[in-house]
Amino acid sequence: MYCDNTGAIAIANDHGVTKGARHFRAKDHYLRETIDLGDYKPKTLRLTFEEGVQMLKEAGVDVDLLGDLNTESERTLGKLVLEKYGTEFYILYRYPLAVRPFYTMPCNDNEAYSNSFDVFMRGEEIISGSQRIHVPELLEARARECGIDLKSKYIDSFRYGVPPHGGFGAGLERIVMLFCGLKNIRQTSLFPRDPRRLEP
Fold first, then answer.
1. Domain 5-188 class?
2. How far is CA 6 from CA 46, 91, 93, 119, in A?
3. Is pLDDT of 98 > 70?
4. Cα radius of gyration rounded to whole Å, the chain
5. 123 and 74 in contact (C-beta within 8 Å)?
6. Which sign does the torsion angle of CA 61, 65, 68, 74 carry?
7. Does the global pTM surpass 0.85?
8. What is the bridge-based pairing of β-strands 45-48 and 116-121?
9. What φ, ψ does residue 45 adopt, rounded to 5°?
10. What is the distance between the alpha carbons of residues 164 and 87, in angstroms, rounded to a whole number?
11. Dihedral sign of CA atoms 103, 108, 111, 117 in order
């Protein structure tokens, strides 16, 4: 998709889970009566990574401002967001550059952070995305910083001209599990597998 980080966040928000949540809350009486759909605001809450870390620190959680959040910290932040803002669905953006892939665009105003985001539902990440680097020299520099040896043909393709672009990935089975309040992702998978089972 051709957009910057703000555009990628808007697409994930406007055409993603919140639209579905509002639709089901308004239309499907059976679903509303049998599944706790949670509280989804008309406009999705957006917090910077720094704001999220500050909330965690105020709650006594030890978090590195330039590190990543572990699973327990994400769940704790989800509870704090619900208590403070009354929603279980929010976007955390401007993650530290050090914890994102080499192709993630650094922020213009602070290169310690990146133009990236995660979308959370009920304390778990469901979508992750970013603006991607489109400038070949910057892409080469970031790859070197991360110890990655890029093939010349990959970089050459950027020299022909790549527009600003971004993207995101969504875990659909996880979204359905969290949206419906289910306890296990196997309940949302058509053919669940695990180390001890090949058939559902």
1. alpha beta
2. 11, 12, 10, 13
3. yes
4. 19
5. yes
6. positive
7. no
8. unpaired
9. -65, 135
10. 32
11. negative
